[in-house]
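User: Predict the full complex structure for these chains.
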Amino acid sequence: NAGVTQTPKFQVLKTGQSMTLQCAQDMNHEYMSWYRQDPGMGLRLIHYSVGAGITDQGEVPNGYNVSRSTTEDFPLRLLSAAPSQTSVYFCASSYGQSKVYGYTFGSGTRLTVV
Amino acid sequence: KNQVEQSPQSLIILEGKNCTLQCNYTVSPFSNLRWYKQDTGRGPVSLTIMTFSENTKSNGRYTATLDADTKQSSLHITASQLSDSASYICVVSGADKLIFGTGTRLQVFP
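Assistant: Here is the predicted structure of the two-chain assembly.
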């Protein structure tokens, strides 16, 4: 049982480059979310999805796009990378409402933008 | 403003000792409170969840308490082990969102 799988684990980008962070879960969870974790701050919600075909913005959505074409996959796209997007990114999934069922988190993607 | 504050920021203890981590929150309305453990280089893993009516919840050597009146929670670790070295994150659920604390970094030395 793989749980939530994120790729890549590490990535270095140049300012202005674009890339996609991959996230896949095999638990048939409806809810999926992307968070970023920065030193001295709590995890902040970027985008979330309550089911295939449905996405919505979180607390810090600017500079990021998402799509949810299948229940399993929830990729996060950085449109034009900026140094402020240097962070650790976590994908998380939940059977239902995260506040009720809790999250299963991936292992994270450490992104550095130079 | 909905906030979750954790203390201390970091803690060093010797293997076998007990410790207590604190979480104070101002989230309203309150739905539930979770403690997560995050090992270095890994994602957070849920340890306990408590609703308004629960005062104590245990998971092995981890015991969480909740005082909904004072809006405080604590996580007590008994007989610490080297594998307890991690960050511990308090997460409070409000009406429609989760509020994450910044975590307490615990280091257990032999």
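Helices of chain A lie at 98-101.
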